[in-house]
Write a structure and sequence with these properties.
This protein has 196 residues and is α/β, with parallel strands linked by helices. The protein is built from 5 helices and 10 strands, in the order H-E-E-H-E-E-E-E-E-H-E-E-H-E-H. Strand 5 (75-77) and strand 6 form a beta hairpin.
Length: 196
């Protein structure tokens, strides 16, 4: 069982892993903690935004939209590979997902199919939204993929987790397709190599 790292430690870990970090406003205190707990944390979840334009994407993920208030993640990874920190604490990114998947993440075992939405993921996952249209055609530039690898490894390194603690939204919640355009298996392999 892992407690979330402090905001300052999170920032320090991302930078130590070589991520280019942009701090957005009072990100350290921007969260949804008043609606429920954050932690214990068990993994990292990767998403795509279905948006275009870095400034618009960062703003949307910080503030949210009608029906889903922000922050919508902890960090927004734009096409240029920069990691924009928009919130810290409970964030509206994971939603309800499969308890069997959570158990597999905790045990760092192969993931079962996600066929239920019965567990609060916002409580248990660090979340990174990645600027992409999510249509399978919008490219994933190498700096962006490398940033996903770096932030995931940074969190895993802090908690002593392996690459198996990093999942995509599509592996957590039935009906989700993100991230689309690369496989989580290939990303986990990159993270595994970085953690060696």
């Amino acid at each position: 069982m892992a407690s979330p790292m402090s905001a300052s430690r999170f920032l320090e870990r991302l930078r130590a892993e070589g991520a280019t970090v942009v701090e957005v406003g009072d990100w350290e205190h921007h969260n949804r903690n008043h609606v429920g707990p954050w932690g214990p944390v068990h993994g990292v979840m990767i998403h795509h935004t279905v948006t275009k334009g870095s400034a618009h994407t960062v703003d949307l993920c910080r503030n949210g939209y009608e029906g889903l208030p922000g922050p919508l993640c902890h960090g927004v990874i734009t096409k240029d590979g920069r990691v924009h920190l928009v919130g810290y604490g409970r964030a509206n990114h994971a939603g309800l997902g499969d308890d069997d998947v959570l158990r597999a993440v905790i045990a760092e075992k192969a993931l079962p199919p996600d066929n239920e939405a019965n567990t609060d993921g916002n409580r248990h996952f660090y979340g990174f939204e990645c600027e992409n249209l999510g249509d399978g055609k919008d490219p994933w530039p190498e700096p962006q993929l490398e940033a996903i690898e770096r932030v995931s490894a940074a969190v895993c390194r802090h908690h002593g987790w392996t690459e198996r603690s990093v999942i995509g939204h599509l592996e957590w919640q039935p009906g989700k397709v993100d991230p689309r355009g690369f496989t989580m298996a290939s990303m986990r392999e990159r993270i595994r190599e970085r953690l060696k």
